[in-house]
């Protein structure tokens, strides 16, 4: 079985990285997972930084991502968020989703926000794309 990887918003934000990761997930190199909150985070960041973008187009990308991969959307992690401690409290939802989604790895560009001594307690690694 391939590794289960939670893809953080910052690796879904840049289209080239998102496209490569999605292609690998579609080809079952790994099982790519995310949440509705992670989707909203990368979509909001793109709209904020590139105001010419249209929300509907980005939401279509989100929907296509959800359809193209097997059981990618993680739900039911919200109750765990406030029980977790991370350097950036805004990243707790990512770790909570990785725990509930039984992910082996969190793929993020912000390695420092997910200290090994914390995430390893849950059997999770953190990797840069």
Question: Any overview of this molecule?
Answer:
The chain is α/β, with parallel strands linked by helices. The chain has a single domain, classed as Rossmann fold. The chain is 44% helix and 10% strand. It has six helices and four strands; from the N terminus they run βααβαααβαβ. A four-stranded parallel beta sheet has the order 2-1-3-4, with helices on both faces. The longest helix is centred in the first third of the chain and has 14 residues.
Overall number of strands: 4
- Write out the strand line-up for the largest beta sheet, numbering strands in chain order: 2-1-3-4
Describe the global form: globular
Tell me what the CATH architecture is: 3-Layer(aba) Sandwich
End-to-end gap: 20 Å
CATH class group: Alpha Beta
Number of helical elements? 6
> Which structural class matches the secondary elements?
alpha/beta
Low-pLDDT residue intervals, each spanning 5 or more residues: none
Strand content: 5-15%
Task: Return the average pLDDT rounded to an integer.
Answer: 96
When the domains are counted, the total is 1
Q: Give the CATH H-level superfamily.
A: 5'-nuclease
Q: The biggest beta sheet, please?
A: 4 strands, parallel
Q: Helicity, in percent?
A: 40-55%
List SSEs in N-to-C order.
EHHEHHHEHE
């Amino acid at each position: 079985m391939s590794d289960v990887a939670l893809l953080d918003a910052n690796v879904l934000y840049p289209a080239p990285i998102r496209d490569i990761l999605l292609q690998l997930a579609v080809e079952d190199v790994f099982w790519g997972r995310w949440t509705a909150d992670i989707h909203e985070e990368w979509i909001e960041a793109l709209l904020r930084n590139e105001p010419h973008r249209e929300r509907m187009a980005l939401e279509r990308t989100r929907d296509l991502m959800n359809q193209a991969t097997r059981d990618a959307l993680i739900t039911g992690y919200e109750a765990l968020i406030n029980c977790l401690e991370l350097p950036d409290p805004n990243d707790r939802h990512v770790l909570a989703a990785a725990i509930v989604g039984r992910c082996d790895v969190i793929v993020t560009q912000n390695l420092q926000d997910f200290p090994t001594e914390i995430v390893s307690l849950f059997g999770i690694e953190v990797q840069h794309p």
